[in-house]
Amino acid sequence: MSPDMNLGTPSLLFYTDELDQTYTTFKENGVPVGELVEASIGRVFNFHDPEDNYFAILEQK
Hints:
Distance between the termini: 15 Å
Number of helices: 1
Strand content: 25-35%
Strand order of the largest sheet: 1-4-3-2
Helix content: 10-25%
Low-confidence stretches: none
Shape: globular
Largest sheet: 4 strands, mixed
Radius of gyration: 12 Å
């Protein structure tokens, strides 16, 4: 989403049509998730794996 942002590790952006359901499922399964936020391109949340690789899931407008 921000090509100029360099976290030093690769990052991936996934898309879904069911963001609320995905968010709830992740939380119920103990996945560390960030808050659901409204971005200019849609609603999104991030999460990370045990190795602290970050990912984002977007529901486009």
